Amino acid sequence: MQSSDKELVQMVVSALAHHGVRRVIHSPGSRNSSFAIAFEAHPAIETIVVHDERAAAFIALGWAQQTQTPVAICCTSGSACLNYYPAIAEAYYRNIPLLVLTADRPAKWINQGDGQTIVQAKVFKNHTHAYLGFDEDNFAVNPTPIQQIHNFLQHLQQPWKGPIHLNIGINEPLYGYTEMQHFDFPKVLNAAHSDALPDFSVLKDKKIMVLVGQMDPNPALEIQLSLFAKFSNIVVLVENTSNLQNERFNACIDRSLNSIDNSDAAYQPEVLISLGGAIVSKRIKAYLRQTPLHLHWRLASDFPDMNTFGLLTACLPINPVLFFKGLLSAGLELNSLNFQGKWKAIDYIAKDRQAEFQTNEGQIYDYHVFAALQEALSAPCILHLANSSVVRYAQLFDPIEGLLYFSNRGTSGIDGSVSTAVGAALASPNQQHLLICGDTSFIYDSNALWTDPFPKNLKIIIIQNHGGGIFQIIQGPANSPLRAQYFEATHQKSPGKIAEGYGFEVQYCVEQQELIPTLVRFLENGQQFLEIQTHQDGNAQVLQDFFNFVKK
Fold first, then answer.
1. 533 and 443 in one domain?
2. Residue 159 predicted with pLDDT over 90
3. FRET label pair with 115: which of 6, 210, 517, 540, CA 20 to 30 Å apart?
C-alpha cells in the first residue's frame, strides 16, 4: 500500500495506531499534507476534515469525551496550532486524552523570516502532560526514536490523562508517495490506580459529606455510593454533570443551600470526601471554605496539590469504586447521627415549593426554558450544556432520569460548546444528542456548523437573550452601568439566521404559551435548530424571585 514518502511521518502514524489512536481530526494545510497522505493510507485510522482549527480541536475533545479513547488533531505550521489552545486547556483540566500533532518547518528555518513559522516547540507546555519533537533533518529510523515516541505516547494510558504535544519538522517536497513500512514498537502498558486504602476508622461517628463533581457515567460507582448513602451519617451531594442519579443523593446543591444558615453546625460536615472534576456550584465552594472540616480526602489521580476548599488532608489516587467498596467493608457504625435527614428534608421542601413557583404570563424568561425542558425531555438522550448561565440554570432542577449530562467545565469557557457537541454526536451516531446553548456561545463557535457531514443526531436549542446573560445574575456586573456595553455585550444578532446561512432550517419561539408545544414538536421532528427568544431585562429578577420563593 502506498503512503507518504516521509519515513518520519510513517513512523509517527504507525506509532499512533499502535497506541490506540483511531480518529484524527485534520485541518487542511500544506505542511501537514504528508500526514494527510499517511493517515489516509493507514487501515486502522479514520480521518475527518475540519477547516477551523479551533472547532477541530473541540470536535476531537467531544469525540474523545464520548468514546473515552484518545483522538489526534493535526494541523499545518505557524499560527494554526495556536487555535488549538482553548480545547487543549479544556482537555487538560478534564483529563481528556488528545494527541496534538503539529507539522512544522525544520528548526533551521524558525525565526529566520520564513513563511508560516512561529516557535511551536513546547508552545502548549503549561497545559500538556508531555512534549516530543522530531526534525526530519536529523532523523533516522532506529531503536532510539522508536522508544522515544513509544514512551511519549504511553502518557495516553496514564490514570491522569490529558493532552500531549508532538511537533514534527518536515522538509519540502511534501506530497510524495512510497510503499508503507512496518515498524516494531514495544507493548503498550496500561497504568493502574493505586489500591492502597486509608485508615477508615477515623470516620467513625463523624458527619460525612461526599461531594461529586463532573464525571463520565460510572454505573459501578453509582451502586457503591447509593449503598454508602443508606447510612444516616452520610450526605451525598451531586450535580447533573456528575452523571450519578439516585433518590438518596442531593442533586440540586444551590436549591438546598439556599435555605441553610452557613453558621448552623447541624448541616456542617466534619469529614469531606470529594471526587470528580469541576463543581458548578459557587455556593458549595464558599460554604465548605468556611466550614471547620476535621478531614478532607480527595479521590483523584490528577492535580494532587489541588486544595479547592482550603483544608485538604490527602489526595488519594484510588479508584473511587474500590475506595467505597473498602469503606463499606470496613464495618463502621454510620447510623449514629441524623445528618442525611436534615439535608434531605430541606431538599424536599425546596423541591415541593419549586413546583408551585410561577411568573407573569406572556414573556419567556431563561428560567422558563429549563422548566419546560424538564417536561419535554426524556431519555435516552445525551444533553450538552453550554457554559455560563445555561449550566447554572440546569443545576436548579433534578436530573432527568436516564439522561447523560456533559459540559466544558474544565475551563468553563464559552468557546467550543457547539463543536464539542458536534464531536460527541459524530462519535455516537446511533444516540440522540441535544445541546442547550446561549446566543453568545453559539455565535462564538458557529464555525462548527461548517462540519461536513454535520451529524443528523444532534439538535441545538439556542437561548436568545441578546448577550451574556450570566452578567445579569452574578453580583458586581449586574449593577454596573457598564454591564450592557462591556460585560454583557448586548447585541441584536440572530443566531438562527447564522444557522440558516449554513443551510439549516431553524424553528423560532417567542411566546410563553407556545414554549412547551414548540419544544415537544422540535424534539420529535427532523429539525435540528430551535431559537427561543427570552426576555432579557427580567431574567435576573425571575431568578431572584425563584430563590426567595423556595427558601424555607
1. yes
2. yes
3. 6
